[in-house]
Amino acid sequence: MMDIKPFCNTEIIFTNKYELEQLLVSYRLSNIVLVMSHSSSMRWEFEEFNEKLKRNCNELNGSFTWIKEVDANPTQRSIISSLQQIGNKKIDVIIAFGGGSAIDLAKGISAFYNSNRNYNYTVKEITMNIKNKSYVDDEFIDIIAVPSTAGTGSELTQWATIWDENKLEKFSIDAPGLRPKKAMIVPELTLTVPKKMTLATGLDAMCQAIESYWSKHTNPIVQDIAYRAVELVIQNLRKSLYNPNDIASREKLCRASVLSGLAFSQTRTTACHSISYPLTMLYGIPHGLAVSLTLDAVSHINRGHFPNDKELLSLFNEYDGIKNWIDMVSDGIVEMKLSAFGITESDIPIIVDNAFTGGRMDNNPVELCKNDVKKILESIM
Questions:
Q1: Would the pLDDT of 85 be above 70?
Q2: The domain at 193-379 falls in which architecture?
Q3: At what angle do helices 195-214 and 295-302 cross, to 10 degrees?
């Protein structure tokens, strides 16, 4: 039988908060794991909804587990802690509310859930299994993803980023069975996202789209989707930052996020993401800001080495380039250079040594060496 890779096998639903609650309760699922930080539940006023889900499970003689602790950058320990909370309970579905971190944690739970092992996992075991792509019998718990930010695209992809608790590596859990079965997009949930996070996630969506556009694995359909995602971010990110209750621009950023997720789920990302990982892991730079720091410099290297490059880059002509647009949209929120995040010239060799992630750096249309990365980093000090 031929090996067929579907373009998208996630059902995508755009809805509002009220209809979302009605839909999820109507599914009458008996064994639920809810991944949602306690602070998010309070912020979105989901306490009554959570109780309804719990009552449903009880009425159906099932179980309800609420994972209330969601780390900003989930580690092996985050997965172990969640599995211990679940213990030997049965799971029918994991419902993940939040940004990429919540959805990534849900994927970690799905990949390693085993009612006989949940209390006994060690960090070493989780680490080795991630490295070997050895998940539990390659059987995965279904995920319903409800992103609360417009940017990560995790609601449509088959991989999850897990960060080493010792800050030595960045890992990727990767299996087709981890693609959420449903992505439920609720622009209202993004209204409470702080300005800096709105900026970071919007830039993340744009970077994912641009990197999919120039990836070695791009194709015309990916480029069309990615182009529209970039266009939507350019048109709406600044509006959302300075008119945070503008639901129309928020909804368009959600569209951009979904389109970006569709695009890079076909191609994976490239050099910008690869260089960003040590910036986040070692220096705590939020992911969306870390990836966009190098976007302009990498674009100059890649120009002329991928199809339809002029068409993509022309989107930034009226701003005189990617860097100027990023500086303009970030103005008053964060200064987009390494020194603003406490990084010094002496840190550059450490970043360079950790900047080459397989499947990301080698997916760039132009091969980069350590000296290239060093020059890129020096140019954004």
A1: yes
A2: Up-down Bundle (1.20)
A3: 10
Architecture of domain 11-187: 3-Layer(aba) Sandwich (3.40)
Burial of 292-331, coded b for 16+ CB within 10 Å and e otherwise, reads: bbbbbbbbebbeeebeebeebbebbeeeeebbebbeebbe
Mean pLDDT of the chain: 95
pLDDT digits (tens, 9 = 90+) for 41-79: 999 999 999 999 999 999 999 999 999 999 988 999 999
Query: Token match 């980069």: residue?
Result: 368
For the chain, the helix, strand and coil percentages under 3-state DSSP, each to the nearest 5: 55, 10, 35
Q: How far apart are CA 65 and CA 81, in angstroms?
A: 13
User: How many CA atoms lie within 13 Å of 31's alpha carbon, on the beta-carbon side?
Assistant: 10
Residue pLDDT, tens place only, 316-351? 999 999 999 999 999 999 999 999 999 999 999 999
